[in-house]
Amino acid sequence: MIQFVTSNEGKVREAREYLPETVRQVNYDYTEIQSDDLEAIVTRGAREAYREIEGDEPVLVDDTGLFIDAFEGFPGPYSAYVDDTLGIERVQKLVEREENHRAAFRTVLGYCDGKTVETFEGSLRGRIVPPRGDGGFGYDPIFEHDGRTLAELSTEEKNAISHRARALAAFADWLAVQK
């Protein structure tokens, strides 16, 4: 059993597609350190979650950010805050002023078994465009990959190519070797 520390049921459903283990959702609000480094954030979060959640089962945490090339990777780990304060339309308008519209979504997973923390990264390259589509959440309407925004993809299409899916696939491969 792996305890996936998240309040997002969609993330849990996606994780269950990649992991042969049973994944159980656990709502625990671990302390998210302020850092420009997703790996540092999930490493600290995974250790804390393992210590604080009852039971002896390993935990999995994740953190995701939108890294805009023209802004030297900003907002990165601060993506949720920027979305909450500026909104995706303002972010898109700021990027529109720049020559370079390229960006990447990055997810880092942190797995803690009580002894060590292992991290796994997945990324998806694309570009920032005016909002399109009705699906997804967050920055999906302004993030275009292969001609369509993530908000224009079905959940299945998005999950097949997403940054989180790539991190989960790497984790699943590693986990299979550990057995």
TrEMBL record:
- Extract the Pfam families matched here: Ham1p_like
Give GO MF terms, alphabetically: ITP diphosphatase activity
Enzyme Commission number(s)? 3.6.1.66
- InterPro entries membership: ITPase-like_fam, RdgB/HAM1
Q: Does the keyword Hydrolase apply?
A: yes
Q: What family, per the record?
A: Belongs to the HAM1 NTPase family.
The protein's name is: XTP/dITP diphosphatase
Keyword list (alphabetical) reads:
Hydrolase
One of the GO biological process terms: nucleoside triphosphate catabolic process
Q: Its GO CC terms?
A: cytoplasm
